[in-house]
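Recall that a protein's primary structure is simply its ordered list of amino acids. Everything else, from secondary elements to tertiary packing, is in principle encoded there. The following example makes that idea concrete.
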Amino acid sequence: MNLTDNYRLTSLKHVKKIPTGLDAFLLGLYGKFKGRRTVLWKILRFARAVDRLCSDYKGLSDSELKARIRDVGDAFRRKVDDATLKCAFAMVREAAARKMGFYPYIEQIAGAYALYEGYIAEMSTGEGKTITAALCATVRGWSGRPCHVITANDYLASRDAEIMKPIYSFCGVTVGCVTGEMKPPERKEGYSADVTYSTAKEVLADFLRDNIALGTNRDFSKRMLAGVTENMERIMQQTVQRGLFTAIVDEADNVLIDEAVTPLIISREKDNEDFNAICKLAFDLSRKLEEGRDYRVEEKERSVRFLVDMDERLEEVQQTDGGGNGFCKAAFLKDLVRQALVARHLFNNGRQYVVEEGKVVIVDESTGRKMPMRSWNGGLHQMIEIKEGLEITGLKETEARMSFQRFFRLYRNFSGMTGTGKEASREFWTIYGAPVVCIPNHRKCRRKVGRLKSYSTKSAKREAIVREVVRVHKQGRPILIGTKDIDESEILGAKIAELGYSCRIINAVRSEEEAAIIAEAGKFEAITVATNMAGRGTDIKIAEKVRKIGGLHVVATECNPSSRIDRQLFGRAARQGDPGSASRYASFEDELLRRNLPLALLPLLRHLGFFSALVVKWAQFIAGRKAYRSRLSVQRTDTWLEESLGFSSGDI
């Protein structure tokens, strides 16, 4: 298959619209049927059959096994039957055992087969998802068509590609990776491999840049016509990707749901002194307004509502202060003043963003991770720069835009893995067409999760957390404290240090050597404070000494908007049958409750301590509905753009 054939598979004309209303409801029911228990039984039967076949290859020499692999690999350039597929997985498993020193478990084979069949495989944290993805990617790589393994960050992309390279090489499959710092020639080399490890952001950004570079030739039929009169190689040299065919998404809930609220936009900055001057004027005007009299901050909606007629007020200001220059209309200035108030009251350094090297870097509130190269639109980014006393960046002109939901539906073969997929099974099926199947653990889980402990105030909750940390630390057990944001991680870290205990902190400000620190979080007497998703994808291994005294103890300092994220944090303890425990805390000053429950009810709910777990579930349900509506709005915008840009023929 040549480059143009691969690009034919990425045409947006092949993407079906997401159903709504009754269609969505009926499709959701069908998705539950697709993930029924009998499907799991079929997958496990396949895995056991592969396990039995492995005995046929154990006695072969490396050269003999490689010859067998070449023969079966050639068959995957065509459609294969079930028997050939079983032999293929058995050979790859034997190759993995020879290069990695251990045989992948039956459950890992089952996970790999589920990926091959297009499922979202729920596998508990620590069950070996990295090698599971490699087993499936190797088989997919034999087809010669692009296989992209999507990871949570650049570090994991380069690490997993390097760790799994011996397996791929033994099986005659090339592997590469694409990370943020790479130049176009390096990216092209990474995508030229049979299997490419990267992040969702990088793969989508390269896809959009390739479409921009192709211009009018982005449509396959137009490229074929251009190939008659132009040099096809010259046209395709402008691109870095070979196309989209197979995607295997690790940490699928984070990539496909949590980070899918915001579309990826390719833009270029435009110098505009008039716009910058108006932003400064709007910010100065916002300082002259009084909260409660001129405006009200709506924390639950994260917005600002004016209480007075701002149009007349701003028109007067333009006349007296010289704000109008033909560009600044009253309505436009009003929107910028609102953005200035939002920046001042609802966006905080250390929570929604950090300042690095004179630049505002957005922080993902759900994970605590930095998101470089991203910016807010509508003037909000500029307002935060003014608030922090930084140089104002110019307006950005959008060149290409696409949501992650729409992008991943371009792949012909799509699947994913996650430790927490059940809660989002309906959305996985409705949007991505991938049913969820829960792969059983290799060993029985021994994790003990305590009941929710609720407090009226954050300060009382922090004191209780510190007391628990001291108590568990005296036993010698390692402790991992998960916080929702940077501020909380710093406060708790400081409180623990004041008592004379050594602890390591990981957050968006202190992200250096994140994986190395997390890997050591299971050592005797270790105390680690981290934002919830820090070190995700890195194993926390515990020593035998720690295993005997109870294993790793995880402290969840705050309930997250989704119970999936809570479960991900708990999953850091008690991996692969190890002992471990987790405790949960909440206060009625936590953002989850303040933003999602009626403020008038909170004083009453404080006295219902026995029902605090139900109160949290209520707030998480409301937060989940809001987030789902946000993701649907991104989808509606995608559909609107496609239908409005009729000249594009649906191909941008």
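The chain has 27 helices and 20 strands. The mean pLDDT is 85.
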